[in-house]
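Researcher: I'd like a structural prediction for the single chain below. Treat it as a standalone chain; there are no partners to consider.
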Amino acid sequence: MRFTTPLRYPGGKGKLTNYILKLIDINGLNGCDYVEPYAGGAGVAINLLLAGKATNVHLNDLNTAIYCFWHSILEETEGFCSLIDSTPVTMVEWYKNKDIIANQANYSALEIGFATFFLNRTNRSGILLGGVIGGKEQSGKWKLDARFNKPDLINRINIIASKKANIHIYNQDAKLFLDTVVSKFKKDTLIYLDPPYYVKGKGLYQNHYGHEDHLSIAKTIKQNNMHPWIVSYDNTEEINDMYSGLRKVEYGINYSAQSRYQGPEVIFFCDSITIPDDSNPSKVKL
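Model: Treating it as a single chain, here is the predicted structure.
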């Protein structure tokens, strides 16, 4: 399925869309509500909504910059798209938007949301605190506008905004979100948790986790016997210990953070869910 989210994300799980579409079908969850406590680029969520497989999607992210992006494209769509159209993709703008992210208290949600988008599209691997594509001297093979196709990005945002009535956004700690918001959702709500990587999270995400944070979220989701859920992670010994006893699928997924390589990944499943019969969830064909 075509990748529709406007945000690039390290380890983004858009390639799992077909696998989750299949999971929804074989578990009788068509038209369900769908939840991502760690929304990020929300690649799977937007794909499921546009495919009609999810009636509503609930996107939560503790990172205020990411939240402001989603809020802005849904609530200030015209202004956001106007900024895309009128803003030159230059190093002057890169420095300007980098300063906005570093000093968010001084700016509006629209300014923060656009700065998040600008840096995401112009930085290597979409990492907000990462380096610019082509380097600050713009001497590399690719320049900072290499991932900034304005008409395509405006089109993606307008398509998403047309579904705003079915997109609900939150800016909470994931555990609090699960405990206080998701716990009240109907039973056929599918939850997909994609927490920060255990090993490389600190270098990729502004809101990375320590060991105890990963352990806390594992305990919380394993106690949820009401909703079907899946969890994806980097495949480490520590994570496997936290989710021991659960069924899992191990696989490789291509992602880029400075360089492209096959990263070992794992998906864990709650006891009530039927698992699709596919050895590599990132390569499912429908």
